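TA notes, week 10

Several of you asked for a full example with nothing omitted. So below is the full record: C-alpha cells for the whole chain, then the designed sequence directly under it. When grading your own attempts, check the secondary structure regions first.
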C-alpha cells in the first residue's frame, strides 16, 4: 500500500510524516510526501527528527504531480491549505485529513521554537503509529 502525505510546501509536517512512516511502516507500506508547492526542507524539522533517531535529511521537498497521485492508495493531508487545494483523487484513492499546526510559524526564542517543532514531531509520530496500525489491519485483511 502506498501512502502520500500532502502539505503546502513539503518542508516540515509532511516530511516528518514520511520519515515516521518509513521508520515505522514495514515492507508492505510505502511512504512519500509532496507539497502543493515546494519550499525545501526545514533544518529544524531535520534536527528534531534526528533527535528522535529518524534521519530525514536525504528526503526531498517534492511538488505534487499526476504520477504521485496515481501511485498513492491513500492521501493524508496534514494542513488545511493542502486539504482545501488537494486535487481530485483517482478512483479508489482514499483520503484523510490531519489538521496539524505549522511549526515553522512558531515565534519566541530559539528554544521555544524548537519545542514547537518537537511537539509537532511527537504529534506526527502518534498519528503515523495509529495510521500504520490501521493500514496493517487493512493489508492483512
Amino acid at each position: 500500500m502506498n501512502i502520500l502525505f500532502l502539505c503546502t510546501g513539503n518542508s516540515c509536517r509532511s516530511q516528518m510524516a514520511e520519515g515516521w512512516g518509513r521508520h515505522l511502516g514495514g515492507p508492505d507500506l510505502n511512504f512519500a510526501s509532496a507539497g502543493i508547492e515546494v519550499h525545501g526542507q526545514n533544518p529544524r524539522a531535520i534536527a528534531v527528527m534526528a533527535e528522535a533517531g529518524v534521519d530525514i535529511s536525504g528526503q526531498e521537498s517534492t511538488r505534487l504531480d499526476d504520477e504521485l497521485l496515481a501511485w498513492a492508495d491513500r492521501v493524508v493531508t496534514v494542513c488545511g491549505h493542502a486539504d482545501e487545494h488537494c486535487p481530485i483523487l483517482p478512483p479508489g484513492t482514499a483520503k484523510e485529513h490531519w489538521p496539524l499546526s505549522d511549526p515553522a510559524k512558531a515565534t519566541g526564542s530559539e528554544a521555544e521554537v524548537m519545542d514547537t517543532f518537537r511537539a509537532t514531531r511527537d504529534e506526527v509520530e502518534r498519528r503515523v503509529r495509529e495510521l500504520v496500525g490501521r493500514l496493517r489491519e487493512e493489508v492483512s485483511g
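The longest helix spans residues 110-140. Use that as a sanity check on your answer.
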